[in-house]
């Protein structure tokens, strides 16, 4: 099952569309299955960056929850993957890899990619919480509005 969410990023007010997934290793998530995926919120907006954010080099967005619910007993075991639909966020070409995510507030930050990234492996219903951050650079980031679509997929493992 595929699902899209919106993710917003701001370099004086930027919006991005994302759909989500966690422990980044290349994965294809091409199995079958019948799943309900719920992402809350569906639109994630980064706040306008401050001088402190630029000095830190990162801007945090609110967390997003992805809920996976198998619809059939045969589909209880599943993999959840995440991938960006485009290598850039539009505008002047800021790469989607400038957005990183972290699962459940622990572990390494993983750069977003256009290939499937394994977020979680589960059995039955589960909610995965993702935190997003975006790299900021005074010399490279042009003020503007940027968007990207991210696709979350669940497949039988």
Q: Any overview of this molecule?
A:
Mean pLDDT is 76; it is low at 1-27. This protein is 4% helix and 45% strand. Strands 1, 3, 6, 9, 11 and 12 form a 6-stranded mixed β-sheet that branches. Strands 2, 4, 5, 7, 8 and 10 form a 6-stranded antiparallel β-sheet that branches. The protein has a single domain, classed as Immunoglobulin-like, CATH 2.60.40. The protein has 1 helix and 12 strands, in the order βββαβββββββββ. It has one helix at residues 51-56, and strands spanning 2-11, 35-40, 43-45, 58-60, 64-70, 77-84, 99-103, 110-111, 117-123, 126-135, 144-146, 150-156. The protein has 157 residues and is mainly beta. It starts with a strand and ends with a strand.
């Amino acid at each position: 099952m595929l699902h899209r969410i919106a993710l917003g990023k701001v370099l004086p007010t930027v919006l991005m569309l994302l759909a989500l997934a966690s422990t980044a290793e290349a994965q294809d998530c091409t199995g079958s299955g019948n799943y309900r995926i719920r992402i809350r919120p569906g639109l994630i907006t980064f706040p306008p960056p401050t001088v402190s954010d630029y000095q830190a080099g990162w801007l945090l967005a609110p967390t997003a929850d992805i809920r996976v619910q198998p619809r059939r007993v045969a589909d209880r075991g599943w993999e959840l993957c995440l991938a960006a639909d485009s290598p850039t966020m539009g505008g002047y070409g800021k790469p989607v890899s400038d957005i990183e995510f972290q699962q459940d507030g622990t572990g390494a930050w993983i750069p977003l990619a256009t290939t499937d990234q394994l977020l979680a492996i589960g059995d039955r219903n589960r909610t995965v919480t993702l935190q997003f951050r975006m790299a900021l650079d005074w010399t490279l980031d042009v003020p503007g509005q940027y968007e990207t679509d991210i696709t979350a997929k669940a497949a039988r493992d």
